[in-house]
Amino acid sequence: MREECGVFGIYGHPNAAEQTRLGNHSQQHRGEESTGIAVAHNGTITTVKGMGSVTKVLTQPVINQLPGFIGIGHNRYSTQGGSTNDNAQPFTATVKQGQFSVAHNGTITNAKEMRAECEDKGAVFQTTSDTEVILHLVAQSQQPELLNAITEALGRLEGAFSLVFLTVDSIIAARDPYGFRPLVIGRTETGFVVASETCAFQYNRAVYIGEVEPGEIVIFNSSGIRRFQYTPQQTRSQCVFEHIYFARPNSKVFGRSVSQTRKAFGRLLAEVKPVEADIVIGVPNSGLYAALGYAEQSGIPFELAITRGPLTARSFIQPSHELRIDTIELKLSADPALLEGQRVIVIDDSIVRGNTSGKIIKLVRSAGAMEVHLRISSPMLTHPCFYGVDIPSPDELIANGHSVEQICELIGADSLAYLPLELMMQAVGNSDYCNACFTGKYPTLINIT
Amino acid sequence: MREECGVFGIYGHPNAAEQTRLGNHSQQHRGEESTGIAVAHNGTITTVKGMGSVTKVLTQPVINQLPGFIGIGHNRYSTQGGSTNDNAQPFTATVKQGQFSVAHNGTITNAKEMRAECEDKGAVFQTTSDTEVILHLVAQSQQPELLNAITEALGRLEGAFSLVFLTVDSIIAARDPYGFRPLVIGRTETGFVVASETCAFQYNRAVYIGEVEPGEIVIFNSSGIRRFQYTPQQTRSQCVFEHIYFARPNSKVFGRSVSQTRKAFGRLLAEVKPVEADIVIGVPNSGLYAALGYAEQSGIPFELAITRGPLTARSFIQPSHELRIDTIELKLSADPALLEGQRVIVIDDSIVRGNTSGKIIKLVRSAGAMEVHLRISSPMLTHPCFYGVDIPSPDELIANGHSVEQICELIGADSLAYLPLELMMQAVGNSDYCNACFTGKYPTLINIT
Amino acid sequence: MREECGVFGIYGHPNAAEQTRLGNHSQQHRGEESTGIAVAHNGTITTVKGMGSVTKVLTQPVINQLPGFIGIGHNRYSTQGGSTNDNAQPFTATVKQGQFSVAHNGTITNAKEMRAECEDKGAVFQTTSDTEVILHLVAQSQQPELLNAITEALGRLEGAFSLVFLTVDSIIAARDPYGFRPLVIGRTETGFVVASETCAFQYNRAVYIGEVEPGEIVIFNSSGIRRFQYTPQQTRSQCVFEHIYFARPNSKVFGRSVSQTRKAFGRLLAEVKPVEADIVIGVPNSGLYAALGYAEQSGIPFELAITRGPLTARSFIQPSHELRIDTIELKLSADPALLEGQRVIVIDDSIVRGNTSGKIIKLVRSAGAMEVHLRISSPMLTHPCFYGVDIPSPDELIANGHSVEQICELIGADSLAYLPLELMMQAVGNSDYCNACFTGKYPTLINIT
Amino acid sequence: MREECGVFGIYGHPNAAEQTRLGNHSQQHRGEESTGIAVAHNGTITTVKGMGSVTKVLTQPVINQLPGFIGIGHNRYSTQGGSTNDNAQPFTATVKQGQFSVAHNGTITNAKEMRAECEDKGAVFQTTSDTEVILHLVAQSQQPELLNAITEALGRLEGAFSLVFLTVDSIIAARDPYGFRPLVIGRTETGFVVASETCAFQYNRAVYIGEVEPGEIVIFNSSGIRRFQYTPQQTRSQCVFEHIYFARPNSKVFGRSVSQTRKAFGRLLAEVKPVEADIVIGVPNSGLYAALGYAEQSGIPFELAITRGPLTARSFIQPSHELRIDTIELKLSADPALLEGQRVIVIDDSIVRGNTSGKIIKLVRSAGAMEVHLRISSPMLTHPCFYGVDIPSPDELIANGHSVEQICELIGADSLAYLPLELMMQAVGNSDYCNACFTGKYPTLINIT
Q1: Rounded distance between C-alpha atoms, residue C91 and residue C114, angstroms
Q2: So what's the pLDDT on residue B82?
Q3: C436-449 pLDDT tens trace
Q4: Can you tell me the ipTM of this complex?
Q5: Interface residue B136 vs chain A (CB under 8 A)
Q6: Mean pLDDT (chain D, rounded)
Q7: Is residue A385 annotated as a catalytic residue, yes or no?
Q8: Chain C contact for A3, CB < 8 A?
Q9: Which H or E run includes D433?
Q10: pLDDT above 70 (res A324)
Q11: Beta carbons of D252 and B339 less than 8 angstroms apart
Q12: Which terminus of chain A, N or C, has less C-beta within 10 A?
């Protein structure tokens, strides 16, 4: 599973490019396929973007050549192949209202219709990204002012979008009326920051002052901060998977600590899905906090018995055929000294296709564990996401067509249990969250074609 | 001085991507800043482009992943800096009439007005290239068929343009009504090739069958070749500098051999600007053919006394300050054995700012030449080009504000002479050529802003 | 502080090169400056080595070209600068007794004298590495058999050395008589592995069968395994810092689990250096296990409140001057949700110069901690190491010339305490370990020059 | 065919590293596999070397970190594969007499015996290069002074060697007693230069003052230049192929201009092997000068009808199988405007296996030539070289086992003729040259094993 993207914007920093690069860097976990920044200086926006990580694309020499005190940044998720960088963001456009850039996290569900409509009016599409439609809606707006045109354009969009715009003199942040994806605001000594997560505040030392609200536009410029509701809020539908898996543990998203929420998942899981065992361990990194919570609630000792290796499997492409070292093995190592002869509770955040879970159980057993009990800190994953998360197709999800008992057998665990939906919802406050990937109850109308 | 670009297109080859890459490779001299290709396959166009040379950007693995039997390619000239590749071509667009790509050589002189007009109609410009305006004129055309929309768009353009379009099933080549930039057609065993120069026919073994005519559109598709005049031809205004400097000597452009034309320049120069000397030498590579012609006419022996070094100066960026090896010295070497004690006639194609000429004369003298007589195979260069050649600003051109005698003294030659305008025109057939950079007589109205 | 190196050897695997690369990969934490492998095939040894990480130097295409079923590998620590790769290992030599390679972890304390002696006899030294002397001692031995010559050479060496030799048909492992550095043996389905740590057994699925003993030579060849004492064992002097910091937690070194030992350090620290607090946290990665032990013993909850960022600071070289983001901040992130308003016990493995500790305390405070109590899971570090660890010079060590109270104030902690020496020794079994860096009691005579 | 190497040394330049890099650069044609430099500064020698071209290995940042006023350099020829850089030169050694480096052009014919002898005395060989034996002979010499030890070592060597040594305070140049390979001396404003060819004097502006004589040692140090005969000269046996093919045309080697010599070959060839034709052309680059000479003598016009492409074929590795563009075609282009309907004399320097010649003839014919007469500016190549040139094995040489008529037919020429041996020798002064590759008469005794 992959998060779609991370967005970032900074207003009022003497070295906006460097800060934006660091902002992208701290949100690298939200997308590793491509990255980019756009910086405004002397009435012109300069954009640098490319395939690869922040350190590869946004090198120091590149950054040093980008003066300016306003900038936005973007990270995009990793896909297979893709020799083109046309879809890397931010997108920068010159339209009759002026020049602007945009960085997007989410999925515009009516992009196809909007695209057809824009094309009919003479638009030139140069990418396959759903984000590009925003540029054209702005350009085709009859509003002569850029802000008004953007406002009008946002009114046409459906789906999930946390957006950060850059104009030659301001940052404009906006969020869809349901609030699917996070978008936080921080205040620095000399200006403001917006980002997907508060972990992006570390290097600019911003103080968290809240979120861009669903249906809200927030403008940062020389007059300070201005906010207004461009459309009425709908039922808040914040992505619960940000708490389960995507966001960094030290982040606050949707006004809630990620690490604390994960610990709460673990405590509730221990309450309702207990099992006799000697130790509790978590699958790094997202499973560690739920494991801590589980251990706390159950009184069973927590151990750090699975560790990440020095490098990700990605570094070992083209493995020779005779070898067949599994990528899980390249990423993770188990500690025999802690596992030998133990009855082990393994906490993981979710089961997608089931093969990763099976390999982890095998890894733990091969290090000597006597029993392996898998506990999942979220419910059974059964439905696709239309709001910015890349979930495999339903028939690839092991939870479709298999009972918990069947899955347990397939992955080779001694026991398996999921966190019940109502408890997950209780941990995040019982409402305001989208849980469609577990329930199929989508907050918006979806036209599947 | 820099040529703007080279364009290439191939219809009907089982490995169009590989052929397009080779086409770009053979036209690399027309632009080294960026390169790209677009290939159509199964109704979709894939584009790969980037900063750098053909061998760097269009690597074999990239090419191998691009099936298709139709493709176009582009090389772009080298600029200083430029950390963005937004302006690399071909540009690929999806518009209401379908998907297409375009590669452009030339300069659209009314791009600014067209751009403003398109923006007013809601266009999104994503680059600063004058070529992008073509995409928008096509998109905003009311013609439902792509070919008709392109035809209509071309009618709006002013200036110099040799264009190669790719659609999902055809190549469309077009040339401005004055015919400023070259565009040749070749027939292969299984299809057709268009290119800036015939040197691009080497790897596809095409047979030259003529040029795209000024004001003409030529379509290559499954029905074969179709041509029509989309606008009346204007006074033919072919760029004489293609013959003087840009084109490769083994190319035919504007129906005329480049090497033969250069030899003719040299012969005429010898006739009207003789000087007593022991040997005639040419500055590689463009000066060599004129030197051969000069030697032939004058009866003075031709020698290869200046040779290119193993690498261009470009490889030695960041020279240490104490060193001060001149870039001319890194590029060229003189042969003392051939020059020692000789009275030498040096033939070069042009004098721009004069500093290169000065260094060459110094190089020849330091190898022992007793006298150095510089002969230039073109007239005095005095005016900017608005049709696709990057000439320094008029006040940087040494021929503005200096007499031939003054230039001779400034560059340190024993004598200096230029090829008179009327003889240059005679060598290329006396008409059909633009010589505005020597005369200031521009074939089209130019609005300088 | 830096570990000097990691060594690896495999006998009897159809793809020894691939396995050696994976062995190096799993020991990458023992050295990131350079890496290399040597593989024997058809009577000849091929060596590939270079500056940089395993994934950079030992690429898949390189590995695929190296057939053979015996190989050795080496990782070397990172130094600043160093544009030469002459010191990368393994070293491969052809001498009168045949061809062999060697990989070394440790420091040969009499290298200077041995080098002078070898030079006097006509040796050519091609590197500045202390390891090269081994090649020459072998070459100058009068023993006609390679094994005997190696045995004789080892008898001349003083200091710390865990060595893995490759000949055209065998692996020879050897360890100095004090056993300073680790060297473990594993049995695979078809042969044997030797390595610095058992974490290197993960990808070859070896079963741990013990250590190369101090003063022992172990030979792996077609006759199986053969071992003999080439010199009497001296007082076992195993490096206690392997347990404190260097080794990976899931490794066993010196017959003892690293994670378990670190937890024991933490438990003892809690016993003798208690402090009232709300949470216990560890500095990743080495401090985490001692923190778990401390929490277990004290009953104060363990939290994962400091996490590693996505990338190491190394990726952000050449930081702009205005920025001044600290490298600690680039590496580590604190979690305000877990730290806000808390009294925090921070466990770290050691204090070297003190500046890192100061920054970590600042990081924890800036995330909202009310009190920060630092507990160190080892004694005060005061003396240099002559046995393979790169410790700063004594006057750079903060523990020299400062009391615990002074250090506490300098680094800005609310309280500070170290693990007493006798408890550390108790945790590792009270003897068999070198603790000279804490006590100055060196097991061997050291001639400092 | 490949030249083995180029050597370079400079004494007395404030930026010796930069000058050595430029020296290597200007001799890049003598070897492209690897390159390196060694610079002495403050009593220590630093060496930087690696696989690839000068611009790739000796980058500006590397050079900038190398102070010193004495340095030597080396280029090595290109081989296929070779993932190791162990054989790159200069070699640097520390021996009992001190530290020194050496760069070698040639082949030491008794390297095998010398190696065995050194190994018996306890030498450690770390490469497979014949040059390494020199280090060991120096190290094993009983002479306490480095110069004397080097002198003694040289007395043991047989074969071809032009050597440049670097010590911490001097350059020592030496040449074998037959003088097989060139070694020229130049005087700069502040010191001296030695190099394989005078083309290496361009960037240091040295004035040619002669050659290191066969059997001579020349020392450059703070006392100036000192020369002595370390062994009696043997029959001068200078490599005639330096004039035919290897050396750059603007160089002087063996006291003779390369371009003038090639022109002389061409004139003699025209005299004895005339043919009726319309034009004379040369195969770039080595055939051009002989073609000029042929044209001069015969009165048939010289044309530049074959030109080199923008890049070498090397850039197009991994060509797709369907394509089959020949490497000759990627390197060379023919000019139809100059060749169409012509009777053409093509001059090339030699025929090795014959396939290249066949392709060139095909290329010229496909550009329209009516007749193609090949003239070779050297005799039939029939024997291997033992003195530093890599000639294919005798059975691969087309001249073995085929008559001139047969070769003519095989390569598809209308006529073929070689320069007779006695005329070639006459052109270079009738003696002093080794012509063993044409005659099998080797100046030294060769033990073939």
Answers
A1: 17
A2: 41
A3: 999 999 999 886 55
A4: 0.92
A5: yes
A6: 92
A7: no
A8: no
A9: strand D433-434
A10: no
A11: no
A12: C
